[in-house]
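Regression test attached.
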Amino acid sequence: MSGSSFGNIFRVTTFGESHGAGLGAIVDGCPAGLEIDEEYIQCFLDRRKPGQSKFATPRSEADKVKIMSGVFEGKTTGTPIMLVIENTSQQSKDYSDIADKYRPGHADYGFDAKYGFRDYRGGGRSSGRETAARVAAGAIAIKILKTMGIAVQAYVKQIGDISIDYNNFSYEEMFNNGLCMPDKEAAEKAAKYVEQLMEEKDSTGALVECMISNVPAGIGEPVFDKLDARLASAVMSIGAVKGIEIGDGFEVVKAKGSENNDSFCIEEGKVVKATNHSGGILGGISDGSTIVLRAAFKPTPSIFQKQQTIDKDKNEVEIEIKGRHDPIVAPRAVVVVEAMAAMTILDMMMSNTTSTLDKLMKTYDLL
Amino acid sequence: MSGSSFGNIFRVTTFGESHGAGLGAIVDGCPAGLEIDEEYIQCFLDRRKPGQSKFATPRSEADKVKIMSGVFEGKTTGTPIMLVIENTSQQSKDYSDIADKYRPGHADYGFDAKYGFRDYRGGGRSSGRETAARVAAGAIAIKILKTMGIAVQAYVKQIGDISIDYNNFSYEEMFNNGLCMPDKEAAEKAAKYVEQLMEEKDSTGALVECMISNVPAGIGEPVFDKLDARLASAVMSIGAVKGIEIGDGFEVVKAKGSENNDSFCIEEGKVVKATNHSGGILGGISDGSTIVLRAAFKPTPSIFQKQQTIDKDKNEVEIEIKGRHDPIVAPRAVVVVEAMAAMTILDMMMSNTTSTLDKLMKTYDLL
Amino acid sequence: MSGSSFGNIFRVTTFGESHGAGLGAIVDGCPAGLEIDEEYIQCFLDRRKPGQSKFATPRSEADKVKIMSGVFEGKTTGTPIMLVIENTSQQSKDYSDIADKYRPGHADYGFDAKYGFRDYRGGGRSSGRETAARVAAGAIAIKILKTMGIAVQAYVKQIGDISIDYNNFSYEEMFNNGLCMPDKEAAEKAAKYVEQLMEEKDSTGALVECMISNVPAGIGEPVFDKLDARLASAVMSIGAVKGIEIGDGFEVVKAKGSENNDSFCIEEGKVVKATNHSGGILGGISDGSTIVLRAAFKPTPSIFQKQQTIDKDKNEVEIEIKGRHDPIVAPRAVVVVEAMAAMTILDMMMSNTTSTLDKLMKTYDLL
Amino acid sequence: MSGSSFGNIFRVTTFGESHGAGLGAIVDGCPAGLEIDEEYIQCFLDRRKPGQSKFATPRSEADKVKIMSGVFEGKTTGTPIMLVIENTSQQSKDYSDIADKYRPGHADYGFDAKYGFRDYRGGGRSSGRETAARVAAGAIAIKILKTMGIAVQAYVKQIGDISIDYNNFSYEEMFNNGLCMPDKEAAEKAAKYVEQLMEEKDSTGALVECMISNVPAGIGEPVFDKLDARLASAVMSIGAVKGIEIGDGFEVVKAKGSENNDSFCIEEGKVVKATNHSGGILGGISDGSTIVLRAAFKPTPSIFQKQQTIDKDKNEVEIEIKGRHDPIVAPRAVVVVEAMAAMTILDMMMSNTTSTLDKLMKTYDLL
């Protein structure tokens, strides 16, 4: 079944493989009248593209985005926006090894079980490269949210045992180190850890945190399409993510109600909460506080050590992966988390435009 | 927007409030020919219904399910199955307190922000009572999976600091203690902890674990509709859940690739994995191992202590919640997790029936 | 697959069989704040219910609707509205005849081919009785449209060879004759024709026309979700409909562009069209003129003559249908056409609330 | 809202404008293992592309399709298939006339009402050129249906008053005359009629008929997603279509039940119908007979006569359309009808794979 679309109203459909002709997305349902151009989207792609630091694969992909439709005279027209990124660095090489063997930690075996065969070149559709299309589409969502005063900011909070100290928090610092940690000291420690792992032909997991500020209260649909349910789906759909939490997340297991409940209060005439254990979402609906989510990224499965596995004829074999791979997924995934969060928030804000009869009447100037 | 439906092919739409006439679900897309009756579904509802232990609200709801359509001569017909549960214990009482005030930790404020007003009686649509409809629908999914040899089993793994010991694991034990812990010793300790909290008019969070065994490899759609993304959405949509993880979950943050990768091997001619850090899902597609997920449930927000909050006129006020509330959500939610997991797995197994041309041809006896 | 839902934002899911416990609908996505009660909805059901004229089956169904959820203190809450109609006149009788034989002109054979068996009592899910749920849900859509100044009016335009004369058109007259023709003279002629057919144990087809006035220009999504495509789907989904047309409809085959094009002009400062060959829709988007559609209803397939058919064991047999059947479908279907048209128009007006960035900003008071 | 997708399981999303960089489609949900290449798809595009006869616009578009993803080693992989067609003949010209004025019979006014502005070059997204993407996607659906033994054949049945005579019917003849009429004599008469209209700077409507043979009984979902409802939506979504009918269509208005009912009988051990008034669909489900549908195409609205209209500042003005336009839409639309019909049938056949528990079990080799 079709599973390459995300969102109901702001609807993104992606395509493309790691080593095919290219990849991209159709953004359908984008409101008309938004100023957008390739340069703006490119900024986001450049944050994800390979080769930006020593912690990223040196594969040299320009990741140049082209807008093929849906924008006229510098503005979105309301019709589908086609974003295409051509692949330029598909090395012709001998894939016979991974063509026949299933890489541990990868989707190879699942793809063969599902489809009977697969495009094995660079992971095909299951390559992390697929997320470039998400970033391109997400850039548009981020721009709309920005116009509405909403900011989406993600960063790497923890690598291995090394966690940022909020006392040292500097969002700008994130752009200075190749690990996207907003704490200089932690980033330096983590860099040493990752370098050591690279020497050991190994990789590490990491934790990404994302803050979405200024979302009005009332966003999210009760029951199945809760805002947190949709965010969970959005972020868990990023390849290497194995866990997702909102607000206090897994800490709530040990918490008491008297600790976990946030009091509502009034500050300068506005409704606020004294604390934000909820992470900005209560009962699936935004409560007006900053939305806080965290995603656990597993270590890059492509490591350069010998591993035990099987081939497609069900023989037990050894595999030794070659090629160009990141020792850590998270830094390049930070902007992917932002993209997915933004698409979710925007889609649900668009869903919410008809929650009352008054809103509907107002849209048509009947109130 | 409509947000009360779950699933694409096996599609469940629920309705109902805590203190209205009743609640229930339409199950659309259920295959024809399944033997099902009210007794079978009732068993699952009885696991969730209130009053089953001292840790559950004494509200006396029979939660009797009635099948109104879609079943003929004891079998599903393929047309919508309507499941209805009438509310019988809506105490007429004075709701003026919670009608005007926003309960901390609840969706009250969000509902008013979204809809302009709300059915405040017992939480209305945002009451945990809404999950009865999920359980009724989920029972049907569970029966189909069982027919296919797939088992879904959830239980409470941890309450506060008290965790089960897998050496003592007994699934049957889960049904002996009111806390649904499959470890007698841990359950006893936890019982004391919860009793103490009840005296303190407080509540606790907990961790629920769910195992889904025997799912064939190849289930899940790459990219946005990954199996784990769909499970995350399904389980996070349960009211009190604040985090969801698969396999090693948040532990992957500290793991190395060499530790986290599971080797494929052959056992009795079958593909298996030497370990199961992946929790049965790789790249969003089932890998044939047992699927393992965990959900963090926050403490019941309805505690009987005085709390600070605001009223709908934006005055800061005190609130003291009365009524019938559980000191812990998780034990009654165990079967809800099973229901949501089952609906997800089944829906995606149904989605997968057309993944290859050969399968499609076979269905129509053309191969 | 699930096929019992209609609409994307205002989403209606129906259930129920002719001779089961009952039938009804969940209306999800209805804006909060609409005043609605059972009496209002009942008026629409009474127009459809059997036994209202000599041209309708005498089956005595009260068709009493009950609102089980989603309405509080007389207003919609924004959560799912459950509408249920119990069946009260399921005659216990010998169904062995139609249980085994496929009635010509009915879905019996298709149901067995699809599902392996079927609820044969009174046609089960494929009974026209299913449309009662549409009417109940449609009544809510009609009320919202009315609040927005939009009227939906259908009537029988032609029965056999007898067509209404627009010079005699009186919408009120429609309610005076059992055939729902808004022309007294034509209705009398048609009555004689239908009476004659009843004596001959035969039935007749008819044409229903529907006018939707005051829909603003700009409604409809280009390409696949055009307003006329959605209307066509909505109306064609009514059991007996075999054709649907908009504006000049099939007459366009013979028309020239110079005749078929409608000139735009200005009348009292407003954009109007000099003619309305388009039927209010151009390129799939409303043009501000009255929307005009027509649906061709086939003759009731349940006639009381002997007919040739087969049984489920593939023997050629004779069948003689007994029971209670209308000699003409259209008069009772008029309100069903209104319901389907209203749900479509409303759903697409709700879809249209985010067509521009300005509208989105306005909804959130950011413009 | 997003309205550029068609189908649930075999899901097609299109993009592109008449004079932008290009247009195309993502086909998501296509089963893996289908042999497909650009040459095959090109054959279908060549039937639609301009300049193939004197009755078609001379705009010289190669309409070359490129497959960007989803096909590996000559076979579909099950992942999204991206089909792109670059625009090569966007004449730079002065559009100031149609930029400000609303062309009668076109969607210009509706687009401005909906989106605030529009890409006016060649009609932008509302250009008939959009259908090239449908044809490319439809070619894939047609190939799968062909593999299953199902043929989809459309042709022009009537132009103005001139209708084909089934006694002269030759499907091959359709490819010999520029009007796609499968009757040589009728085609010659019609050619004269269209030539005369071209001299008069006018255009004509036409009727397209489509036959889909060998669809098994049991396809279609009861109630809202009936097979005819979905076909109606599919075909009505083609720009110039104003009416759609199945089987006897609008003729049923005058028919009696005794005439319209088709008897079931047995022929060589198979279930057949003595007649096919139903057009292969009963109660929304295929009955095993050939599916017959007809679509009424309005005259090309772009005629070269002076017409009355308004400009965007609401002044009444004259407009005289220039450029390259067909005097008749239908011949180039024949393959578009085939494409839409094929996508619908295939999608619903895929939906039908889980209609019974036995089918589901069989897919997983559990039966």
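Expected vs. actual: identical. Residues 154 and 210 of chain B are 4 Å apart (CA to CA).
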